[in-house]
Amino acid sequence: MKQPFFYDITLRDGNQALKKPWELKDKKVIFEKLLELNVQGIEVGFPASSDMDFEACKALSLMAPDNLVVSGLARCVSNDITTAIEAIKEAKIPRVHIFMTLSPFHMKYVLNKTPEEAKKIVIEKTKFAYEELKKVNKNGQIQFSVEHFGDCEDNLDFVIDTLKEVVQMGATVLNLPNTVERHRPMHLIKMVERVRNEIDDSVTISVHNHNDLGMATATTVESYFAGAVQLECALNGLGERTGNTNFYEVAVALHNSGVDVPVDLSKIYETALIVAQMSKVPIWEKAPLVGPDALAHRSGIHQDGALKTKDMEKGAYRPIHPSLIGRKDDERIGFTSQSGKTAIFEIITKAGYPITLQEAIRIAPIVKEAAEKVGELPSGRIIDIYFNETFNIKGDFKLKEFKHIKNGEFEFDFTHKSKEFNIKGIGNGPLDACMNAVKEAGFDVQLIHYEQSALDEEILGSGSTAMSVVQLKGNGKEVIARARHSSTAVANIKAIFNALNLLYK
Fold first, then answer.
1. What does the alpha-carbon distance between residue 14 and residue 234 come to, in Å, rounded to a whole number?
2. Smallest Cα–Cα separation from 102: which of 93, 113, 92?
3. Those residues with Cβ within 8 angstroms of residue 195's Cβ, 6 or more apart along the chain or in another chain
């Protein structure tokens, strides 16, 4: 198959749909972004629509590199055509893009012309455009668009006959727009395929799809496989009503389908953000590829799969690796009532705090309960719960005081429910002494594991803090508990009492 030819229409079709169309300085920024994306053709505007658009088209034509097709739109009207030629003639490869409807409905109710009258105008103006353009630039090209081609199923034979004559008059690109999307993609694709089969292979077939039913990307991608080499797209999907085919979606869909796409995909995300800012049309949070939620996971099942494959090129729940389109942000885990332990573990770990999956499982019901009340929880709220439920576990055991009496001997003053204990524990340090005191009080517990470290001062925003982690077994359970304090000894004892409250909960 031929390599796709990306023909961008942001500066014309996209711009004309904005509440405040761009000025020349804005258009220059967009033009430069399109060059960075490495598009092959740019429709710079509709020169006859206003003096401002004429001057913009002229200025952008002068900025164009030698390998870029620069196109200006024109109706099948002599003045439109000559104005377009004047505006873009300095480009190395100028293209005049003329259009006219050939659909039965529009010829009758909009143009008020018979098919024969419409056909005559199309043929005459194509020839006129070709001859006038060649006078000023031998590299000039003519593109003809059948406006509302998607409505031409009933008179497709007439349309194809007209297109064959248009080619004889000098057109080398035939554009088949779905000017209003009314049907499923296959409706248009079959029509595109028939035109491709009946028109000489030297002629480029193009598609230009609007997104009225939300299927413009699908229609454009599948039209390529039906023989339409030129793909007319707009950055951020800008265009009339619900927009034009989204440039990014088409490029990535073809890339994922194994097509050699001549676009610098790594520029996509940056471009999307700039276009959103300049157009004042925000990127929808659920927008494919570039939306804020495009990398977000809230379902527990999805979060688990996403985290297990986050470092792989192919992710469990994403179509591409974010870096393909220049996204530096990673997959985002958002916690809602539908989320679970994996999300808690990832959020706490990413924030720089220590947590095990067992601990995440333990606090998950508490975090879920909070999420049920407010929706998605900010990470700060989850961290607050983590601290409350990890470092200060409430329960029947309460440590009132402990004192170092002499080497290897400590005094522990604590309560369990309503019973008070004052026990001297002997051992190799306060941790060992505390465990012996607890056993003497009648609680058969065993220390399985112990470790002690310093918490990150920057994270906590405080001075040096010791963190103790203990793993205790008893009462038919095995738990992990933590505690933090400026004193290592206090942190050790508090960790044991936090573990006791978990074991005897």
1. 6
2. 113
3. 159, 160, 163, 174, 176, 205
Contact present, 503 and 477 (Cβ < 8 Å): yes
**How far, in Å, CA of 106 to CA of 338, rounded?**
50
Cβ pair 53, 23 in contact under 8 A: no
Threshold 0.70, pTM exceeds: yes
Q: Which residues of the chain have pLDDT under 70?
A: 455-464
Question: Taking a C-beta distance cutoff of 8 angstroms, is the pair 354, 467 a contact?
Answer: yes
**pLDDT at residue 460, as a whole number:** 46
| Residues counted in the chain | 505
Q: Are strands 445-455 and 69-75 parallel, antiparallel or unpaired?
A: unpaired
The DSSP element (H or E) to which 420 belongs, if any, is: strand 419-426
pLDDT at 107: 95
Q: What is the pLDDT of residue 458?
A: 43
Q: Which of 467, 43, 470, 453 lies closest to 247, judged by CA?
A: 43
Domains defined for the chain, CATH in brackets: 5-263 (3.20.20.70), 296-390 (no CATH), 397-503 (3.30.160.270)
Residue bearing tokens 């601290």: 387
Q: Rounded CA gap, 419 and 65, in Å? A: 87
Quick one: pLDDT at residue 60?
98
Q: What is the pLDDT of residue 464?
A: 53
* Segment 22-37, tens digit of pLDDT: 999 999 999 999 999 9
